[in-house]
Amino acid sequence: MAIWFSRSRKIAHFLKPKIAPSEFLYKICSNYANSSSFRTLGGENCRNPQVFSDYSTTILAFRRRWWRPESTRAGEQVETPYSDDDYEDENQALDFPGGRVTFTPEMKFISEASDKRIPCYRVLGDDGHPISGSRYEQVDKETAVKMYKSMVILQIMDNIFYEAQRQGRISFYLTSLGEEAINIATAAALTLDDVILPQYREPGILLWRGFTLQEFANQCFGNNADYGKGRQMPIHYGSNKHNFFTISSPIATQLPQAAGVAYSLKMDKKEACVVAFTGDGGTSEGDFHAGLNFAAVLEAPVLFICRNNGWAISTPTSEQFRSDGVVVKGQAYGIRSIRVDGNDALAVYSTIRAAREMVIREQKPILVEALSYRVGHHSTSDDSTKYRPINEIEYWKTARNPLARFQKWVHKNGWWTDDDESELRGSIRKQLLTAIQVAEKTEKPPLAEMFSDVYSHLPSNLHEQEKSLRETIKRHRQDYPTDVPV
Amino acid sequence: MLRIMGKKLGAPGFTALPAGLALRSYSSSAKQMTIREAINSALDEEMAADQSVFLMGEEVGEYQGAYKVSKGLLQKYGPERVVDTPITECGFTGIGVGAAFYGLRPVVEFMTFNFAMQAMDQIINSAAKTNYMSSGNISVPIVFRGPNGAAAGVGAQHSQCYAAWYGSCPGLKVLIPYSSEDARGLLKAAIRDPDPVVFLENELLYGEAFPVSAEVLDSGFCIPIGKAKIEREGKHVTITAFSKMVGFSLQAAEILAKDGIDAEVINLRSIRPLDRATINASVRKTNRLLTVEEGFPQHGVGAEICASIVEDSFGYLDAPVERITGADVPLPYAANLERMALPQVEDIVRAAKRACYRSLPIAATA
Known about the structure:
Structural class of chain B: alpha/beta
Radius of gyration of chain A: 27 Å
Largest interface: A-B, 48 and 44 residues
Number of strands of chain B: 14
Largest sheet of chain B: 7 strands, mixed
CATH architecture of the largest domain in chain A: 3-Layer(aba) Sandwich
Number of helices of chain A: 18
Shape of chain A: globular
CATH topology of the largest domain in chain A: Rossmann fold
Radius of gyration of chain B: 20 Å
Largest sheet of chain A: 5 strands, parallel
Distance between the termini of chain B: 43 Å
Oligomer: heterodimer
CATH class of the largest domain in chain A: Alpha Beta
Number of domains of chain A: 2
């Protein structure tokens, strides 16, 4: 948002720079610190003018012009010697539907791009040490170890199920490789009462909340123990008891639904929020606009998390949108937003803790953009080497690996050793292979499950169809598959 | 998008009465109630009975409803239960679906079902299929309602009938009232139903008044979903119809009676589930069938009914089944063309005579 102030040349002629520009910026900040529209990132930074002035533009892109008009280009930030009194001058303002605006004789377009992109919040360096000046919420040993272990389990689970698909044992799989920190750190920062509306690359949340490897395998094999009764493709997990809504394939439909769930949660006055995920591609859907707009208007307690992993199947973000990523879209809806390094488990943890607290306390939505990279292919139906260089994938898989970075930190704290690592990896691998074998051998759901749950109660026409099908099976037993119980 | 708002066709006498008390008594003993009043009173009573029921849609609150159907509800229940939404069908449908997922019972109003096409994914992929795809873990007790079908001179994008579209989708229930008794009873049943229900109203019928008995006026009144109603008994030919076409069929039946043809008119009330039993029983009695609908001919409701009769009662037919439908064109605007593109009473009369062999079948005259 640009706020620009202008003066007619006549009056401006008499103004002199009264205070230094950076001091002036600080004054502007503190002036507006109390106004609700600026209680944003910029508002918080106002207390530290040094930090604020490091940003040439922030979410509050202050633009001013000299009292001499010819020196500016649209989008350039120029310091100006205006006094605070300007803001209260009633003659310079107009009432319109939507509120009061100051007016200007100068025609100025807001630039489509800022000079600098919104920086992302980061805590850990690549070497696993916290970067200097970083502020974050401390994580105790128990939580940190659970986080790291879960990231490892997620990674191994992804690799093994992917292989199982390649071997033809399951029909489809979709990995979260490269996004383990987003998955697990977010899950660790939430409570079990927070309702999750996932896209499809967030199984780590379920894993954290206690979904077992066997339960994952059962869903992928669509067997009788699958909570989904074999009705969905693999990876479309859902679990009421873990407060994880069943995954639905169409992209971004869960975003307006999240606002609806939050509306209901708000009426319950629960100490919890709704957390809705989407990827960078999902932000192009109409539902993204509707969901965020509505959540802001209805003041719904939704935490929107966008996993910007750079790719929507083969579409890179440069072809997905022309904005500075997703974080800048928040303000367009009147939603407070932040960009975080999604491969930094501690940064994600701190961000989600803070965001969740704000969402619940203020009963307003918040948007978090977690930057990351989709190391795996979009799914088993994709070969991403066809549209991106292999060395790029390798780079993100190794040098920018979120597990390695977090592991260095837990290791440095003396909470994790190499022996722990190999023991965990070996044990999980064994458990997964067993789970797959068990799931594969388990019977498929019985015939009745084809007709149930279409409606709450079985209607007469489906009852007749089921009867007719059973009679057909009896008459032609040899045509009916043997592994489906009748 | 052009919005035809508050077109008060057929409602010249509607006055500002409080919700639930808008009754006009005539000199006859039966009370009269318009469809508008019927829907309004049904909404009012269900919202009073269950705190989780709420209404959401464009203009439903401050404007009292685009067709004044939700008149008085905002004043009575407040903005938390009567929610005016921004113009985004896929947005507010998605919100409604999400609220239903989590335990509320939303009634989502579309200004017309033509605009609901922008929310089609939320209705079909989310509302209709979720109970099944979540294996019963997430139920969707939502009602989608609004005007459906042709009005008068509103053009192609405001006039389509969606009965066949929604009727083909498993997971949905599709209801379509004709009279005020239908409107009250079916809407109450829809709101109480645990499954997603599409409730197709008709703009031109909003102002039409029908007699209602004391039983219908009772707040507990409900019509079972999936049962058709025989509006007029007869023995020579069965005419199935829904919504406004029921009225046309009844008029046609009066004309036919003068010629000695006794037509049985069935008001379907429920497109999904379709009451095949009632239709088949009637055809087995009369041996002749006409289906009447406003919608497009291909893949329409009449096609489904015809297939159903062929499957269950082929041997009973004494004449081919005829479908009377709207023309296979986007509905034109000009009044003369619009009239020719929609079924009229004369079309039903002529078709009934063909079915009774009182006149030659169309093929023979070609």
